[in-house]
Amino acid sequence: MTKIAVLGNGRVGGNLATALTRAGHEVTAVDRAPGAAASAARTAQVVINATPGAGSLERLTALREELRGKLLVDVSNATTDGPDGLPADLIHPGSSLAEQLQEALPDTRVVKTLNTMLFPVMTAPAALAQAPTAFLSGDDPQAKQTVRELLADLGWHEEWITDLGGIRTARATEAAILFVPHVIRANGFSPFAVSIAR
Q1: 178: closest CA among 64, 88, 117, 67?
Q2: Can you state the percent helix, strand and coil of the chain, rounding each to 5?
Q3: N or C: which end of the chain has fewer CB within 10 A?
Q4: Distance in angstroms (rounded) separating the CA atoms of residues 105 and 59
Q5: Could you read off the pLDDT of 93-116 as tens digits, one per residue?
Q6: Is this structure's pTM higher than 0.85?
Q7: Do the beta carbons of residue 37 and residue 63 sit within 8 Å?
Q8: Are 86 and 163 a contacting pair, CB within 8 Å?
């Protein structure tokens, strides 16, 4: 059992919190109540960033002390929205939210994952007709191994997980968010994920 704080209790955070609780972990889902994030992060072993990506860097930098020595799993994408509310452009072109977080939080082990799919797939990958891919980006091998174990608890098979390398590789997966609005406009909000076919 791992003590996990999920920052953000919208569709993404709520979905992850429910699934990880069902898997036997001790999970606290945090809303925007003053002090709630700091309190939850202080006592957690793993913190999941499921806050809206546009404000994640500012929110998490404010928790630098609480996140010291912790594993931060970043599942958010930092984008500006178009008129229809769908992602239109990257906030950190030539970089990524995950890289910005790792730079701002040098004493925290940041791992990027689960950001290349619609949120229902995060906790039900087997529901898709074809196997999806969950990518890992991060500089700490042990942190990535812990994330692999959490992904397994969410139903991800080992062969569906691809370790891309260091945190710098997160800029590639974050850029994949630019596919999303076009796929949604073409096919609606049916769950989908980026998958590497071999």
Answers
A1: 88
A2: 45, 20, 35
A3: C
A4: 12
A5: 999 999 999 999 999 999 999 999
A6: yes
A7: yes
A8: no
Residue pair 132/125 in contact (Cβ under 8 Å)? The answer is yes
User: Rounded to 5 degrees, what are φ and ψ at 197?
Assistant: -90, 130
Domain ranges of the chain: 3-187
DSSP 8-state symbol, 162: E
Q: How many Cα atoms within 13 Å fall on the side-chain side of residue 71?
A: 22
Three-state SS at 157? coil
Rg (the chain; Cα; Å) = 15
* 59 alpha carbon, distance to own chain's centre: 15
pLDDT for the residue numbered 60: 96
Reading across the β-sheet that carries 109-112, which strands appear in turn?
26-30, 3-7, 46-49, 71-74, 109-112, 134-138, 161-165
* CATH 3.40.50.170 assigned to 3-187: no
Q: E-strand spans in the chain?
A: 3-7, 26-30, 46-49, 71-74, 79-81, 87-90, 109-112, 134-138, 161-165
Q: Which residues of 100-131 are buried (b: 16+ CB within 10 A; e: fewer)?
A: bbbeebeebbbbbbbbbbbbbbbbebeebeee
